[in-house]
Amino acid sequence: MSQTHVNSICPFCGVGCGMCLVVQDGTINAVKPISAHPISQGKLCAKGWNTPFGINKHNRITQPLMKKNGLFETVTWQKALSYIAKNLNTFISESGSSTVGIISSARATNEDNYAAQKFARAVLKTNNVDHCARICHSPSVVGLKQTVGSGAMTNSIDDVSKADVILVIGADSTENHAIIGGHIMRAKLRGAKLIVIDPRQTRLAQIADLHLQLKIGSNIALLNGLLNIIFQHNWQNGDFLARRCEGVDALKEHVANYSLEKVVKLTGVEGQKLVEAAKLYSQANAAFLAYGMGITQFISGTNNVIAVSNLALVCGQIGREGTGINPLRGQNNVQGACDMGSLPNVYPDYQSVADEKVRAKFSCAWRTNVPKAPGLTSLGMSNQARNGNFRGLIIFGEDPVVTDPDRNQVELGMRAMDMLVVVELFMTETAKMADVILPAASFAEKQGTFTNCERRVQLIHKAIEPPGEAKVDWQILCALAKAMGAGNLMNWQSSEQVFDEMAQLTNSFSGMNYAHLAERNGLQWPCNAEHPMGTRWLHTNVFPIGKGKLIAVDQVSSDEQPNAEYPFWFTTTRLHYHYGCGSMTRQSPLLERETPNGMLFIHPQDAVDLGLKNHQAVTVSSRRGYLETRIVLSDQLVPGLLSMPYHFKEAPSNLLTNDAMDPTTEMPELKVCAVRLVPLPDN
Ligand code: SF4
């Protein structure tokens, strides 16, 4: 049989590697890397190579399902949409628009996300729209907006190859973002110095020139300590500070409180290593700084991001090739979902819902009034439901029962709603709790765009038909808007029309259209009259907020500390072979073969102290829940610290995690809590 080849983008992480889908008999039976792709350059990681398994047909949801007497039965689209529309209209008329909302998807296209936030604002009349950036990089969006005016990666992935120092904080880009991990390894081979700041001796840390193995959660102490050393040695970039920043004196005075002796005590890192790292980073010609959720997933997440930004600004390591503040965004389109305004406080392109002019602009464009009240975050909707104040939620392509903190409370919130609708490819743990499940089209079954972590908007093309009656998210939303009586408010005929509407209402995307994206292998925003070919480096001459803001922040303790009852620190991690809740990667027998189970990593010394053998079964308990799993000895950890990947529904680490929140962004403290470990009898 003949094969066709369709170019697309990997549906897993935010690197956005180019892949060619090989289609035979209406099925994707292989993928091939694209050698001309500007980032992946003919490479894919293990997840990318296994993409066909993640969208296979045999266990996809292919028809609308409604729950009756606790069991799902197939129904027509018309019946499902009428039921959802009737309920949403009832909830709004009885209890107000604040009791309904949408969780959109960082796995869906920009067009799907634009439609989701428009549906929330123009049809439901609420700003209750959010997505999983809440639990990954919401502190980056807010923190960097304050300091440099834009919450995205300032530079391009290829800049790794131009840097002479690479500083990675709280991320292991050999596990996730593996193609960036490869860029870093190649940079190191050509002589770049690598500094890793991480409480675990990750694979990246093992090849680093300097590994600062800090105590978990002591990021601000360490970063302020580095700044103090830099000021003491006069290693700051005085010219850059004078021209481009404000708040230098106050910051210098503040970080003087972080003496070397104090920082060594707070972080557990040797003083000599701190001085070496400060010198290497500040004196580099070009230093590329990247960070991940080891910075953001704390109650101090926003301040952690600000501390990172302070370091880059003081050293002038921004606005040039090979430099920058570069948050490594997780999901394939989490950057795009934020850009499209699937957030409760901003419209597309981060236009504030609090700004009257912005509201007037969208009201005029959409020919309907839009709501003024700020919306709820995803966790806020769940909390309100537990309090009896939230009635109807539609979730697109996310599995918060597995991925959100304190699973028992998340489940209580979902159960408390009058109607839960899940739009999904597979029967996830969250889908099992739904009243209605709608079958969604995968990335290979639709056209649209994804935006990777370096702000590159890239086209994906439809390669195969969706299975059964599955539909594209934006088409589902158009049909639902009609069923709710919204007329032609959402009446697009193609994803291109959705994109064009979005581009007309934004500045950063105003120079983009599908033809331009196709010509250029994608374009990095802002792409507009000023930057018609897109923008590789942000902030080259000026910050969008004028001068860069240096803001003094202080170290705070984690919400929970180990004690006699819960004596271990516990942290969550990711593995190379799986992605998110595992609903796609765990369809692959090859990836399952590599890491088939959830597991708890423990330092060998702790195992000896507790009399545990490798792979022994244990129970792990926190103040919120417990689970059973098996241990794996790992000298990546320090004694007293346990870690667990969160991909596995059979051993869901989020039964244990803490939902204490960063007050600015409601980011939960997923990276640290306290647990107890009890051996189970061997069998
Ligand atoms: Fe896909 Fe990310 Fe792997 Fe690239 S690095 S192949 S985008 S999962």
TrEMBL record:
Gene Ontology biological process terms from the UniProt entry: formate metabolic process; respiratory electron transport chain
Cross-referenced Pfam families: Molybdop_Fe4S4 (PF04879), Molybdopterin (PF00384), Molydop_binding (PF01568)
Cofactor (UniProt): Mo-bis(molybdopterin guanine dinucleotide)
UniProt KW keywords: 4Fe-4S, Iron, Iron-sulfur, Metal-binding, Molybdenum, Oxidoreductase
InterPro entries xrefs: Asp_de-COase-like_dom_sf, Formate_Dh-H_N, Formate_DH_asu, MoPterin_dinucl-bd_dom, Mopterin_OxRdtase, Mopterin_OxRdtase_4Fe-4S_dom, Mopterin_OxRdtase_prok_CS, MopterinOxRdtase_cofactor_BS
GO molecular function terms noted in the UniProt entry: 4 iron, 4 sulfur cluster binding; formate dehydrogenase (NAD+) activity; metal ion binding; molybdopterin cofactor binding; NADH dehydrogenase activity
One GO location term (cellular component): membrane
Residue ranges of domain 4Fe-4S Mo/W bis-MGD-type in the record: 3-59
Protein's name in the database: Formate dehydrogenase alpha chain
Organism: Glaciecola nitratireducens (strain JCM 12485 / KCTC 12276 / FR1064)
